């Protein structure tokens, strides 16, 4: 007896539910994604084997470029407003406080701050800025910046970071550290480019031994 042949039909999968889920996920990631703020200047940081992640909130970042110019960045707008009001009261500098709060970085002296904030944000390029006076130990304005910022964070945690170019000279870094010591800010982190531990090194042996202990435990 001949076998009955069933007619072939194309497979149909209803993708409506999957499309809905995909769009919901896309909307979620768009709303929750935190975009990386613009940097003052592009720097090439030195490499290290540290795997400790840099903090992402209440950050006070000091950037040193290859020419030794120093820039300051803060991410907390409430603290920035405190700093702006203190500058106006103590230094007698009049500038747009709202523009100061929105500024991604500061790279000029106190006297040039009003001119700097008057520049449209898209035209504020770190390469065109002189940096905060810090090269001369007799005119280290970073000491004053850090004094005011420290008072803004009084009783609260401040994450102090230093991001220096691999080609920057030691005197610039030394004057930044001098400003830290002047304000009794002795705890800070240096941003580096993380790399793998060299195989065969003492650090590699210690890490391997630590993994072996965890497995045995």
Structure description:
There is one protein chain. The protein is an alpha/beta fold and 217 residues long. Helix content is 38%, strand content 11%. α6 links the parallel β4 and β5. α2 crosses α5 and α5 packs across α6. The longest helix is centred in the first third of the chain and has 17 residues. The protein starts with 15 loop residues before the first helix and ends with a helix.
Brief sketch in words of this structure:
With 217 residues, this protein is α/β, with parallel strands linked by helices.
- The ordered H/E elements are HEEEHHHHEHEEH
Average pLDDT across residues? 82
- The percent range for strand residues is 5-15%
Looking across the biggest beta sheet, what order are the strands in? Answer: 3-2-4-5
């Amino acid at each position: 007896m001949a076998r009955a042949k069933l007619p072939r039909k194309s497979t149909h999968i209803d993708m409506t539910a999957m499309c809905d889920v995909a769009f919901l996920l896309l909307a979620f990631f768009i709303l929750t994604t935190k975009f990386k703020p613009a940097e003052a200047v592009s720097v090439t940081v030195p490499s290290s084997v540290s795997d400790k992640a840099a903090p992402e909130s209440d950050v006070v970042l000091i950037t040193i470029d290859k020419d030794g110019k120093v820039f300051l960045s803060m991410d907390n707008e409430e603290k920035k407003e405190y700093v702006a009001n203190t500058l106006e009261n103590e230094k007698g500098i009049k500038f747009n406080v709202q523009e100061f709060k929105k500024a991604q970085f500061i790279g000029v002296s106190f006297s040039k701050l009003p001119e700097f904030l008057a520049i449209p944000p898209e035209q504020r390029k770190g390469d065109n800025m002189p940096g905060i006076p810090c090269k001369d130990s007799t005119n280290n304005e970073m000491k004053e910046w850090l004094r005011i910022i420290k008072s803004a964070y009084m009783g609260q945690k401040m994450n102090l970071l230093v991001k220096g170019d691999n080609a920057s000279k030691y005197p610039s870094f030394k004057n930044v550290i001098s400003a830290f010591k002047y304000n009794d800010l002795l705890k800070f982190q240096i941003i580096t480019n993380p790399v793998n531990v060299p195989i065969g090194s003492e650090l590699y042996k210690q890490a391997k031994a630590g993994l072996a202990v965890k497995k045995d435990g």
